[in-house]
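Entry:
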Amino acid sequence: MLNLLCLHAAFGNPRTFREELDPLFGELEAQGKAKLHYARGPCEMSLDFVDSIKALDTSLWLFPDPPYYCWTSTSILDVGGIGVAVPGAQATAAAVDEAVKHIEEHILPNMESFDGFVACSESGIVATRLAQRHKSIKCGIIFCGVASIDKSMTESDFAPKTDAERIPIYSLHIFGMKDIVKESAVTIHSYYNQNKARMLQHTKGHTIPSDPKNRQRMRKCIADFLALVQPDANGT
C-alpha cells in the first residue's frame, strides 16, 4: 500500500480536497493499494480577504466552501500580466521552504509511513520542494501545478539546470487544455526525471474535472500510474 500525503490547493481545505479526490482514488483505497492522508495548509485566509479576491477575479478557479487555507504566506494573487488571480505564482523560495518545514514538523510525524504525495495548484510547488529534500519519496501526482515565477525560485537551486538535478521519482502531472497557466504545470513537470514523468491533459481549465468522461480518464491513468510505482515501493 502506498501512503500518499494530500496537499490541497490554495484557499482550499482537506474536506473539499477529499471530495474532489474520492471519485479518483476511492476504489484504489478500497482495494488496499493506496491510503490518502489529508493535511491542512498553515496559513488561514479570512473571509474578508477571500471576498476581496472574488471581487477582482474568479475566472481562473472556483472557491470551495470555507474555511480557506494556503500553504505559503505569499500565495496571495497576481492580477497583472494575464489579469487573473494565480495563487502561488509569486511564492518566494523562503515561503515555500517555510511550508515544507511545517509539513516536516507538524504533518509527517503523524504518518506511519510516507511514500508520495497528491498536490494541486499552489501546493504542487511545495510538494516538489518536499520531494527534493526527501529522497525516500517514491512518487508524486500533481493536478494543475503552479510554478512560482519569483526570482528567488527561478534563479536558485530549486529549478534544475541539468538532467542529473531533476527529481528522480515517478511523477504524474494532470492539467487542463483550457488552463491559461498550463505552461506552469509543464514547468513543474520539467523538474522531474523525464523518463519517469507522465502527463495527462483533460478538456477543462484550472480544475480537477468532475464530468464523467474526464473523471474516467483520470481514474484509469492514476490506477495505471500507481501500479507502475507499486513494485518499486515494495523494493522489487
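The helical segments are 14-30, 47-56, 93-107, 122-133, 151-154, 182-189, 212-233.
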